[in-house]
Amino acid sequence: MKHSLFFKIFFSFCLIILSLSILVFVFSFRTIRLHYINTLSLDLKNLAYTLKLEVLPLIEEKDFKKLDLLVKEIGKNIKTRITIIAPSGKVLADSEKDPNLMENHNNRPEVRQAKRNGFGKSLRFSTTVKEEMLYVAVPVKSKGKFLGILRVSLFLRDINKLLNNLEIKIFGIVIFITFLSLLGAFLFSRSLSYPLKELVSASKKFADGDFSAKVRFKGKDEIGKLAESFNRMSEELNRLFYNLNLKQEELNSIISFLEEGLLVVDKKGRIVLFNESLKRIVQMNPEGRFWWEVLRNPDMGKLIEKAKKEKRISSKEVEISGEIFLCSFVFIPFKEELIIVLHDITELKKLEKMKKDFVVNVSHELRTPLTAIKGYVETLEEDMESGDARHYLNIIKRHTERLINIVGDLLLLSELEEDGLTYVKEKVNLKEMVKDIFIIFEQKAKEKNLKLNLICEGKPLIEGDHFKLEQMFINLIDNAIKYTDNGKVSVLLKQNDKEVIVKIKDTGIGIPKEHLDRIFERFYVVDKSRSKRLGGTGLGLSIVKHIVLLHNGRIDVKSLPGEGTEFVIIFPAYLS
Prior knowledge:
By secondary structure, the chain is an alpha+beta fold. The protein has helices at about 5-60, 65-80, 110-115, 155-205, 220-255, 275-280, 290-295, 300-310, 345-385, 390-415, 430-445, 465-480, 530-535, 540-550, and strands at about 80-85, 90-95, 120-125, 130-140, 145-155, 260-265, 270-275, 315-320, 325-330, 335-345, 425-430, 450-455, 460-465, 485-495, 500-505, 555-560, 565-570.
């Protein structure tokens, strides 16, 4: 209760009201008392000046006995003490006491003030009558001669009696005003705290998930507007959460019915979300488990750490429970969670292997008869003179050579695609390699008036298979020359701290944008008529890509029709 808003407001008001009431009572009473005494003093002063006219003749005549009788009679009638004091301080007459028995009044404050200032006033205890009294004294003069002091006084008990009655009335008024103020403070505090209490109650319900909570308060002030805004917010959030729940249920349904296994891993490695397909794949309930208890693969840890470090979408083939899955990793930075999707590609890999085996077997089977056909054609060529028959033999020979090239490229590509393929690791100087390859293509470039440029920055060294890297450069430079009719073919080699960058650029016909994503596919040819005329197999760029991947590199292509093509390859640098 002590911490409630109502108590704080009401207690503050009470403190202020009571403090003000006490201050008003004290200061108002003192002010009224002072004003009342000042008024009485003025009245006594006027009375003294009036009495001075009555007593002056007797003072001049020095008939002090008669003066005393007159003073006593007047004092009795007006209920006021009157004292006549000689210039020496001796009491000549007094309405209450025998002047002969009274002490010298020369040192009385009011007497001294009257002598000095022409008027004296004092509120003090009287040693003569043993009571507090209010004294007013004025000098008595005649023709400029100072004859004495006329002093009039009132008993303070009479003044206090009047002041006590006044004090009671003031106190009653203050109590009444205080009561009304406290009642107003109570009502105001309640009117202020009630709607806020309603808001707090509704907010608690709101925090507990009850979005239907409303504030039952209406008003035109700021609190009323706040209550109205809260109710509108409650309705809007209730609607939003309803829609969110619908979407959540829809998402959960979609996740549940996904054929792909899905799991979400938090920053500690614990699985916080999964679907039914994952349970079927791992053949256990992953709830509350860590990912390494569920995904039993030695490479999975490295893949997860790599995905968290690179913070980008990545994928990799892994084997789990004897099946092959394409694992996709998506890192969510703000939650530090990782989404893993397992796509079962076991059947696809089986089909792919069957296709590879078929291609290899067919290629091997075709190689021998094609070589035999080429040999017989060359034998017939030697024995045959010019004519139509020789022309047809040349056509047969050209197509046979193209088939032999295709078979050779297929066998090479199958070898490069083989899982776990190893290669000879040696230090390769790319600058020297490109110089040697340029010698091979000098004549071909000369025939087309093309210029071969080699630009080398630094000493580009990588670790790899010299023969396969040579195949890569030959394929790319050969393509550049084939598809460039004028201008030049440039090779840029550049090495930085950790990478070697290779750029092969031509000024040829270029590649349309819609073909760029597919040029590394098998048998994909952009210009089919030109490729057949030039003897292309459609496998060269696919072979190049696999050689680059074999050396842990990456390849990209930039091209604009009519402006040329640029292949960019990045290899890890050789670190001695």
